[in-house]
Design brief:
With 474 residues, this protein is α+β, with helices and mostly antiparallel strands. It has helices at residues 2-33, 36-39, 46-56, 61-82, 85-91, 96-139, 255-258, 267-295, 301-304, 321-387, 394-418, 424-447, 455-473, and strands at 157-164, 170-178, 187-198, 204-217, 231-244. Among the domains are: 2-138 and 360-450, no CATH class; 157-248, no CATH class. Strands 1-2-3-4-5 form a 5-stranded antiparallel beta sheet, with no helix packed on it. β2 and β3 (187-198) form a beta hairpin.
Length: 474
Amino acid sequence: MKTLNRLVLKAFFTPFLGTFLTMILILLMQNVWKYIDDLIGKGLEWTVILEIAFYIIPTLVPLALPLAILLSSLMAFGKLGETYELTALKSAGISLYKIMRPLFVTVCMIAIAAFFFSNHVIPYSNMKFKTLLYDIMNKKLALNIREGVFFNDIEGYSIKVNKKANDGRDLEDVLIYDHSQRMGNTKVIKAARGSMYSSENNRYLYLELFDGYSYEEMNTKDPKKRVDLPFTRSSFKKEKIRFDMASFQLERSDKERYSNVAQFMNIRQLQQNEDSLTSAINLKLNEFNEKLYTYYSFRDTVSLGNSVANVIPFSVSDLGKSKRKRLTKSASSLVRTSKSYIYNTKRNLNYKKKKLTKAKIEWHRKFTLSFACVVLFLIGAPLGAIIRKGGMGMPVLISILFFLVYHISSITGEKSAYQYVVSAAEGMWISSLILTPLGLFFTIKAAKDSTLFELSTHRGIISRLQKLWERKKS
């Protein structure tokens, strides 16, 4: 049995290492390419770029590892079947389950290691990557501003720079369209040079302009009256514009801010976060009910009993004009206050529910990766024994097909959970629920030496279906 185990493990690990490293390299190039314009040619050291790539690699394992297990197991058993080694082992009285057993134990060990990896290493890598990326963008504030291209990431402004210094701070020939008043491009600023820097607390971004002009139209809400209105022109030697850093949609890199991000937490932290969010939602609902009860007091007529008959009918028209006006004003103010409070409470609850859903999704993600490794092995190994084709031809095609089913169902389930179509558990486990019966079906068929993909096997079924269709048609 030791010889058998070595034979099977050698046939598995050779393609596994090659496939896994290749997938990591391809996914790494794809992810780094998204930031290539912000990293290359901006004065950054190569060590910083390599550090970013180093922190991205662990986040790619959830995609590369299941595909590598699926493809390598399919190639291993396909090669054993193609060289008739699998047939020789079965003729010696060794069942397919015994042949798969060493690989199944190995894949289970890989799945356990993947669980601890996703629980400890991936959250840390996510945090370090986001922190490092923010620090780079914070120190190099002009990274996203390209020469000769309008920069529109700051809400209400469009900025164009013809030339930018290597330090990413000094700018030349600056053109700014200010449409922050939601009235079109009513203000244009043009400066010969400028400088961009942030405040000490990184709360605001300052753009200091030198030797420029400002053109501004007269403001009016009526677009018909704006046709013949003049505009003002003013020159300046120095002018400073302040932008809110929230416009960049960047997260601050301190641990306190990142402590509530679900992607940076392990299972224990996610469970604590989920409990705290659930308590906060329940507390907010109770506070909402109590506060509304103080605004509007509703009393049941049944509980009032005979006192209902003693209630004097009241009409607003019986009051004087001044009292009626004060009463209407007070009621309107109460309604506006209640409407604003309900709107803010609804937004707060939706925000907390989204964070709670993200925490649940990340909690289930820790387990789905490990389970997917086992399920995809149960698909790849018996399929390789059935098709009996090694190499990179048919195994790659079948692996890509089943991996697409796994990946698309995973993404669909996750998006559905984010949109509250299904629960977080249903959304994250839907891909495993789809593929597990297929894996068990292929394993049973392979153990019985079923020729699943040969047309002769299904001719009887096809002929019976044709007879049923003709009978139904007649």
